[in-house]
User: Which sequence fits this backbone?
């Protein structure tokens, strides 16, 4: 069984063990107060795991602890994986970032964009420029989510039955066609709005490759990288390792809530949020990115392609706060953070809410999972739990602050041994 293990003493790679203990104690406090079920936290430098902590439970009622091989629903952390899959096709010349989406998905031909009004008075006009593949990957497509409740187009998504981003009972192809029947919120490339765009990208991968999304990702990413538990479903053998999903209880504390339907191959293969993975799987994927497309002799992407993926693509060097399309983007946490091809990118560390090195990239999931790679400090971090809170825990800024407090110096890293 593939398990993430601590590989090196923190002091050998420029990390302060006492500061890491403070980090553990801070996060454990959320568990001990009943605000988190449990967690796994891993900090690596130079690709070597220097700190690995588990605390609390993967299943509270059954008394099952979080362990190194626990499986997690990673939700939107699926997006960087789908983006890598698309970039593999780009490198093969089968897809271009500048391809109109309609070239691969004809339902997006004659796309319309919101012009004004709401409800029965909502008006649209023909789109002024084509929706491109790069717009999907940067979330500048003009697509949205039904649950935002802050734009008239969001309401159209709800009316179309897309409250959960999937057309009930439908597969990826039918759901993406439902998106195409709705107007865009804005002209592609003119604003940033986090959306169902990566589901559309997943469908393009299926059309271009001629393979279902789960099969393509397994064949081209998971198996070559040695990510044995990653996928879009949970087998009978894996079932006992899957963490239960929790949400906020009405009277305080947390309670078990329904999660993704994972037992048996899902009808809807969500490139936006359908994956499960262990800490080992996520470490392997993070290492691929940190090492700019190559891991243990397996090269999935050219270094230049990973560099392209992990740089800010918002026009004029804008960040998520200034380029965002809705009020929720106007948050301090979006200062100094841009967006690449499927990942956020720190563009101005001095303006970020939490300490971050220039060029730090990564992404998070709705169940309070996150990972980031900080090239300037040769640092990789992942935090895994299973909680969908109704309100922010304010956990990530403190997590980043305490990780950075543990850095004493940049390590001299010896070559990583072969697998």
Assistant:
């Amino acid at each position: 069984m593939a398990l993430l293990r601590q590989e090196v003493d923190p002091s050998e790679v420029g990390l302060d063990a006492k500061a890491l203990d403070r980090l553990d104690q801070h996060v454990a406090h959320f568990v001990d107060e009943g605000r988190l079920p449990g967690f796994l936290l891993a900090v690596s430098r130079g690709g070597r795991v220097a700190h690995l902590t588990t605390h609390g439970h993967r299943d509270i009622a059954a008394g099952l602890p979080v362990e190194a091989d626990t499986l997690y629903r990673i939700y939107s952390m699926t997006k960087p994986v789908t983006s890598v899959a698309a970039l593999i096709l780009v490198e093969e010349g089968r897809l271009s970032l500048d391809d109109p989406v309609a070239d691969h998905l004809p339902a997006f031909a004659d796309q319309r964009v919101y012009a004004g009004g709401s409800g029965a008075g909502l008006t649209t006009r023909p789109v002024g420029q084509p929706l491109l593949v790069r717009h999907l990957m940067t979330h500048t497509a003009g697509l949205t989510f039904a649950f935002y409740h802050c734009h008239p187009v969001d309401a159209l998504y709800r009316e179309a039955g897309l409250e959960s981003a999937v057309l009930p009972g439908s597969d990826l192809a039918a759901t993406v066609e439902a998106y195409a029947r709705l107007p865009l919120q804005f002209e592609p490339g003119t604003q940033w709005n986090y959306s169902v765009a990566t589901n559309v990208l997943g469908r393009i991968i299926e059309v271009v490759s001629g393979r279902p999304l789960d099969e393509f990702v397994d064949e081209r990413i998971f198996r070559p990288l040695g990510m044995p538990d990653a996928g879009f479903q949970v087998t009978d053998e894996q079932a006992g390792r899957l963490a239960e999903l929790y949400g906020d209880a009405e009277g305080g504390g947390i309670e078990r809530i329904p999660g993704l339907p994972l037992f048996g191959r899902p009808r809807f293969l969500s490139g936006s949020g359908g994956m499960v993975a262990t800490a080992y799987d996520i470490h392997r994927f993070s290492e691929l990115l940190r090492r700019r497309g190559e891991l243990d002799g397996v090269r999935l992407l050219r270094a230049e392609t990973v560099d392209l993926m992990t740089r800010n693509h918002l026009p004029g060097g804008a960040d998520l706060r200034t380029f965002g399309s809705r009020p929720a983007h106007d948050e301090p946490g979006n200062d100094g953070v841009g967006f690449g091809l499927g990942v956020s990118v720190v563009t101005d560390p001095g303006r970020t809410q939490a300490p971050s090195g220039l060029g730090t990239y990564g992404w998070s999931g709705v169940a309070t999972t996150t990972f980031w790679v900080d090239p300037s400090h040769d640092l990789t971090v992942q935090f895994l739990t299973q909680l969908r809170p109704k309100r922010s825990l304010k956990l990530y800024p403190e997590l980043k602050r305490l990780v950075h407090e543990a850095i004493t110096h940049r390590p001299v890293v010896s070559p990583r041994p072969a697998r």
